[in-house]
Amino acid sequence: MIDNEYVRKQVERDLFPRGPEIERQIGRRRRLGTVWRWVFLGAAALAVLILSVLLLKIVGDANGYVAVESAVTESELLPQSGLDGADGATTLDDLPFDALVSLYQANVSAGRCRAVEYEQRFYDDRLVCDSEERFQTMCASDNPRPACTLPARDAASVRQLIEADVIKPTVVSTWNLWESLFRREEIFQTAATEFPGAEVYFRRWLTWDFVTSPQSSYPEIAGVRTAILGTLWVVGIAVAFSFPLGVGAAIYLEEYASKSGRLNQIIQTNINNLAGVPSIIYGLLGLALFVRALEPVTSGALFGLSDPSAANGRTILSAGLTLGLLGLPIIIISAQEAIRAVPASLRQASYGLGATRWQTVRSHVLPNALGGILTGVILSMSRIIGETAPLVVIGASTYITTDPTGPFSKFTSLPVQIYQWTARPQDTFRDIAAAAILVLLILLLLLNATAIYLRNRYSKRIG
Amino acid sequence: MSGEVLPARPAAPPSPAQAGAAAGLLARKSRPGEKIIEFSLRLAGVISIFTTVGIVFVLVRDALDFFASPAVSLVEFLTKTTWQPQLGEFGIWPLLNATLIISAIGMALAIPVGLATAIYMSEYASARVRAVLKPALEVLAGVPTVVFGYFALTFVTPMLRTIFGDDVVKIYNMASAGLVVGILTIPLVASLSEDAIHAVPDALRQAAYGLGATKRETSLRVVVPAGLSGITAAVVVAVSRAVGETMIVALAAGAGPNFTFNPFDSAESMTGYMVRISGGDLSYGSIDYQSIFAVGLVVFLLTLLLNIISRVIVRRFREVYE
Q1: How far is CA A25 from the centre of its chain?
Q2: Are the beta carbons of B183 and A50 separated by less than 8 Å?
Q3: CA distance linking residue A61 with residue A199, whole number of Å
């Protein structure tokens, strides 16, 4: 049949091999199979490898040796004469309170001292850096400064002030954890030659102080408290907004609407499309709708509640509503799945007993779908908690040091903070960005652990 | 509940006819509560439509303002290769070009790795290996993108600069952003392709093994072609994700539009531009403000188109097996 002799031989060799050719062919196919097996395994292993490198990199950056130069060291500071009770003291911790205050007063400008004291006074009954009359007039006014209402500072707080304003430690160089572990000698040598006056010590950037301090322009003392509070507010508002809407929409689509209805199909397609819209587009929606068009509402001006420091639409409320819209499709889709998983027999039994549609939904469908619905809510939370782009677009503040006081405050959030710190060129800011990433990852881990717990707990109920 | 819904019970046991009439009455009984609830649930569903309408309305309105301004013409927007708002030059191509190059680099990494991972997980891996791989991929998928941005800037860029030299690779470059966008989309490609491969019926595999095919031959020549529509759809979704990706690009690819095809150069993408411009204090109605909506409209249309294509591929080319 086949004329061409060459082609005939090829076909015979490939399809109908004879003798030793069979062995050769099988061997070749086996080898090829093994090679590809390793290729597939390698690709899969790459994903795990990348994840490990990512985590090691972040943990490494958040810990390690730092070289710190100070304006003045503790030991230089202490011998300054004339301090009561300073005899024999070798560290700041040994000094009594009065000595600490006078040490601070002696080493900062009068203006700085007054400013600090107006924020919070040193003694209950008098001012150190200002006159007695000033204290009386200041606190007698209608709008007294915090100095008159807050309790006086304690020794720890004064020590912090001395640290920040007098000793002024500046991190001049940092090394990551892996360098610190394996190239310790080298680091100390480099530090000794390049920064002779610097003190080198091991620093964990993620400390409890880091979590509880407000943002600052000095990376050495900056923290993420404002950012964490901002994140909690924003995510809280987002969930409060999207949870009832999302579950309501899911109930409507699954229990009320006819599956082939026109509206139902439009909604369904629409939800699937929304899930694919990039988050930054939601940011534009939030900017035009919540920040600009609804400014009287989102700034609180309509209710007479606006925060004087914000006074425009770039508030926690706008951010929360934007992220709420962003999380809505995820909640709807997972709530729909959870409701669909409730066996039809439960509904039929309920209808058979004469229950109305809402009675059936409320007493039978929802309780049984609750686990799935909550899991979906948490998944949507863990998606929006890490969202950065929409918040930057609607105008997250770059620098706030005060805690948010309500939905009409200016806002920042943990991912936005990470973005801003990462975008700075200094290594020290990268290190605190790494520490902030760890905080964010821990928050996410907690959320996901809750989701898994709920899934396991509720999935056993029907079955 | 019988007390509130049933009409007064007649003294004599009801005849079948009477019972039927009572049930009819019950069915016709108006229940305003039920109606209100149904109405509010429907409203909740309709809100999602409002979201889409809102997005389209907002983007189109401000983009129209943008094109209506005398400095801008639609033709130049679509054809020019310079984007310099200070000079009144608004050509989308430098931004679009950067977006496309970054997405292409990302896909060059994510498609082979994601697909091979999917094949390994569904065809080769033992239950124990899967138990490690699957959560690892899920964790990777759950990492916030700003964290990947940090990774790109502080790990991948220095690595590229060590490999190719500091003078070749800029501090901000598209290659680093692209690779990390690729990493970001690996879990997406892997999980969607695995779903597609998983849907291929076992009978096909068994037939291939029955003919003496090796595992590689079965996977690559039978299973993958059979699941091709789903795999293609997965890839298209991944491209759409890469186009809309923002934080990695904003951190690692550089600030400043630059029309270049060199992946080691810095160039700003569409999303990167939107973040940089809106990061400052933006006054409403300025040309900068309007321009981010015009660029946003392009991103939105591009991702929408890709998502629709992906759905069409699944519907049109799906092989149906019994």
Answers
A1: 57
A2: yes
A3: 19
Cα separations (Å) of A189 from A170, A173, A184, A202?
19, 13, 9, 15
CB nearest to A249's CB, from B33, B45, B116: B45
Please indicate whether, in this complex, the C-beta atoms of A440 and B144 are within 8 angstroms of each other: yes
pLDDT score at B1: 40
Is A104 strand, coil or helix? helix
In tens, the pLDDT along B8-23 reads 555 555 566 666 666 6
The total domain count for chain B is: 1
CB pair distance less than 8 Å for B33 and A358: yes
Contact B296, B59 (CB under 8 A): yes
pLDDT at B134: 87
Residue B322, CA distances (Å) to B192, B204, B222, B224, B226 in order:
22, 11, 16, 18, 13
What ipTM does the predicted assembly reach? 0.87
Q: Per-residue b/e over B144-174, b at no fewer than 16 CB within 10 Å?
A: bbbbbbbbbbbbbbeebbeeeeeeebbebbb
φ, ψ dihedrals at A411, nearest 5°: -140, 155
Q: Provide the CATH number for the domain around residue B116.
A: 1.10.3720.10
pLDDT for A95: 77
Residue B263 lies in a domain: yes
Domain annotation for chain A: domains and CATH numbers:
1-36 (no CATH), 74-203 (no CATH), 225-459 (1.10.3720.10)
When CB atoms are compared, the residue of A289, A356, A418 closest to B34 is: A356
For tokens 């925060």, what's the residue? A307
